[in-house]
Hints:
The structure holds two protein chains of two kinds. By secondary structure, chain A is mainly α. Chain A has helices at 6-23, 46-60, 75-85.
Amino acid sequence: MNDFSAAPNAALDARVLDLLVGVAPDIDPAAVRADLDFRDQFDFDSMDLFNFAVAIHAAFGIEIPERDYRQLTGLAKCVAYLRSRLPQL
Amino acid sequence: MDAAEFPVIRKLGRHAPAISPNMGSYTQERDRFAWEPARTALRTGSRSGVNIAGVALDRHVAAGLGDHLAVRYIDRDWVRTDFTYDSLLRAANRCANALRGIGLTTGERVFSLLGRGPALHIAALGALKAGMIFCPLFSAFGPEPVRTRLELGEAAVLITSDVLYVRKVALIRAELPKLRHILIVRGPGASVPADTHDFGAMLAGASEEFATVAMQDDDIALLHFTSGTTGKPKGVLHAHGAVVAHYLTARLALDLQAEDRYWCTADPGWVTGMAYGVIAPLTCGVSSLVDQEEFDPERWYRVLAEENITVWYTAPTAIRMLMKAGAELARARSYPGLRFLGSVGEPLNPEAVIWGLEVFGQPFHDNWWQTETGAIMVANFASVDIKPGSMGLPFPGIDAAIVRRTADGAAEVILEPSTVGELALKRGWPSMFRGYLNNEAKYRECFAGEWYFSGDLAKRDAEGYFWFVGRGDDVIKSAGHLISPFEVESTLLSHPAVAQAGAIGVPDPVSGASVKAFVELRPGFEPSRQLRQELLAHARRRLGAAVAPREVAFLETLPRTRSGKIMRRVLRARELGLPEGDLSTLEGGA
Lengths: 89, 590
């Protein structure tokens, strides 16, 4: 069976990783594990998370309340959050 | 920020302290204050002996408070680990014996590179008990700041975790011949790397009996690195006698009382986290909370509410992030026990002071001190009216003044109110630093006659309140951390594309200042987005996210003096659109 969701998923992952690397260029996007929090894999502090949220806001045009920042702390979480906010993704 | 704009918060009626503070009247306390009675009461072992860890632990256990909760750690999954005064004492004893067991003696230096967990408390208190000098390093430092500090501090032992060892220590270890042992705090399932010891196994195999070594007031206990404008980080030395100031400032400036549940959010890798996160609350016999997770607004409110925190000591960056997260989030829980809020690390803006009043029913109490002073020197007290935006009044045993340096290097006290000058303190308080490591000349430069120069610019109003104005030098204060522009520049210069670098702090609404670097490229390199990202990555890998610049900009030429020194002042002025000042020494004229 063809999995048609694979392609858009990968594209969204790539967009998010691009924003992540923009904030923390020391991160190798190929090495990011989707299921782990960024800070468990790299040196990624709360100012980085804040800047990452600002970058997502600018790229996707959504307001992200501070209380939602905790949903941006890992790749899979972040993609799931974006899908919940933007079902068309 | 005029005082008139923000009304004084009176400590009578509505905003009176919920319970009677340790210090009733500031003026009375100032009149009768002396360090001596506490110094006598806190002796360890003999009439002249003292030991910070003895005051923190042995004294309470001897007084029958062994079963009182000393520290509670909360991990990511909200699993709580509790240590009573007795269990922490026994763990620290095991550590002291274990350090002796690998050949360490009094006066040798024990470093830690650890997150906020039990191992850090045990390592610090164990080393202090055995009369060794303890130096905590911030676990978010990259390999380069770690290497520099271990080398300058001539570390004999480093206690770290398996994860931090692999990320930050393994690669630099060969460059540190004086580092004899590395002790590893193992995570679940992790193994111990080659040529290291298992710290947990060492503790398990050591005796829990240890006679705390009686030190003298001037014997060095702690080493904290701080950042300067030029040159390498400065190693600030503190003595065991400082514990008198830890104890009294915690009692009077933070109003710690026996039944308090206290939360200091600072990381013990910095001086606040060691002095007021580890030492001071233990000297007062209170119960401390340590959250092992990183900042998260909802989590922090949960800690405050569920742990029924009574005294909370935090930092402006965190408060401003909480403000951004909105008051509703705070109001979703209640904090009936919370009775004192303190803040330190950088000046607290008046809006934040008042925000505390709005959401917690308590204003934030800003206070001021620095690594060199070892303890709180100027503070807003529980019983004293607050002028929002002001750092408050000098601690009762401290004489503070605004001074200017005369041509011959002496200090001249400025009596005219609200005049900007350098904040100075009359020397001789118990926690005054005892030196800069291997730099006696630099230490002497900090003093003139009876005055210690803080390097901070401030003013004092007609009622004696002190107001912070700015740093007198180029050191950058970001998210409460002092960052040396020199360390940032040196790291950028180690990249082959960079010919010159200058780092400054640019105002940031959340962190106070963020680090911005300007670079001049070597011939053959062109500015590009890719190169900018590469330089940021280079700096982050070596310095760590907390120290590395968040922004890099390219300039054709950096402004410098005729002698070739980068003029950070001019970079800053241009960035902020300020007058550039006297440019007569600038290369190429002005």
